[in-house]
Amino acid sequence: MKQKLIENQGIPGYLLLILAIISGLAVANLYYNQPLLNDICRDLKVSEFTANLIPMVTQIGYALGLLFIIPLGDLYSKRRIIVINFSLLSISMLSIALSESIWFVLASSLVTGICSVMPQIFIPIASQFSRPEDKSKNVGILVSGLLTGILGSRVISGMVGEYWGWRTMYYLAAVIMFVCIFIVLKVIPDMSVNYKGTYKDLMHSLLTIFRQRPDIRLSSLRAGLCFGSFLALWACLAFKLSGAPLYAGNNVIGLLGLCGVAGALTASIVGRYVRILGVKRLNYIGCMIIMFSWAIMYIFQDTYLGFIIGIMLIDIGMQCIQLSNQTYVLTSVPNAANRVNTIFMTTYFVGGALGTFLAGLFWQEMQWEGVVTVGVSLTLLSLLITRFSKVLQ
Fold first, then answer.
1. Nearest 10 degrees: Cα torsion 305, 308, 311, 314
2. How far apart are CA 374 and CA 393, in angstroms?
3. pTM of the predicted structure, to 2 decimals
4. pLDDT digit string (tens) for 253-294?
5. What is the C-alpha to C-alpha distance for residues 264 and 147, in angstroms, rounded to an integer?
6. Residue 93's pLDDT band (boundaries 50, 70, 90)?
7. Residues with Cβ < 8 Å from 133, sequence gap 6 or more?
């Protein structure tokens, strides 16, 4: 099934589909914990704030993986990097399933985050080898795969956790990651590297790009702040819905993840409109949608309908933000796609970790009102960066 890929000459449809599916399976590892936090609290006998450290540590791990592993895609065989990471993922997911201590869960979650970065190697592959006119559309297809994985992970983990316990989900994830190793070996061809030098030189060149391109820095920052707003919702949603007046179980909390299908379905559409509407306009649109979604989830916080509409809107808003900014940075330095994507996604997930931490902190003090404050404030900061920066498109 392997086919040699040539830069800007197109990528086979079957390979694009497989990359999208594997991307979803890989990124799902980051989000299995979100509907299960209440069960983990009870089983390991820890507080809500301590349990909330699990998604935060996972996102910090993801940022570390982006920073130190993704640049290797410009230096070494991408296929070898992918296989090694899926192998480590299989081990880390099994470790979480067997853990009896919160500290072991946190350590394994850090490894899980570090090794779940494979979609951020796949996205530059789609950008690098697609025909110029198909680049944003194909990136949108992979992002749709990511979003489907995120949505599916919450739904499936919520259902599995409700009926078979939270550890079962991680046993299943370990098996899935093991199977992915053989799929990668079967279908992903070797690709030429586009950087000659040492790892130290590679990281120095990444730092040089970061210093010399304020547009890339600020595009990454405004997207990261919105992602922090997005994850603030999911960091505390289980705590909010499991209390009065809704008293929702893990299965119901997980099923609410399906509301985000609106974002997954709009990803490829947004990808097509990046060049038509422009990056700045899509950022304005995305921020306004996100803030409107928070308003709905605050006003109608005691109803399922309020959260259903809010989750749908916040996912659509995030696609406007992520796809516009990621497409821009990937095409800004095409011969360093992995390094540029490293800057973008590292900043993106640092923003996500910040939003998760602040949401947990404000939940302890102000409950849902505090979480809404965090979500709106981070989005407003992103909007102000877009409005007042002169180097951004």
1. -60
2. 26
3. 0.75
4. 777 777 776 666 666 666 666 666 777 888 898 999 999 999
5. 5
6. very high
7. none
> 202 is written with which tokens?
């590679």
Virtual CA dihedral for 187, 190, 191, 193, nearest 10 degrees?
A: 140
Dihedral angle over CA of 189, 193, 198, 199, nearest 10: -60
Closest CA to 376 of 301, 293, 306: 293
For residues 391 and 218, the answer to whether their CB atoms sit within 8 Å is: yes
How many whole angstroms separate alpha carbon 24 and alpha carbon 318? 17
Alpha helices in the chain (DSSP H): 13-28, 37-44, 48-51, 53-68, 78-98, 102-115, 119-129, 135-164, 166-187, 199-212, 214-242, 250-255, 261-277, 279-299, 304-332, 337-366, 368-388
Query: What is the spatial distance between Cα 289 and Cα 210, in angstroms, rounded to a whole number?
Result: 29
- Are 34 and 154 spatial neighbours (Cβ–Cβ below 8 Å)? yes
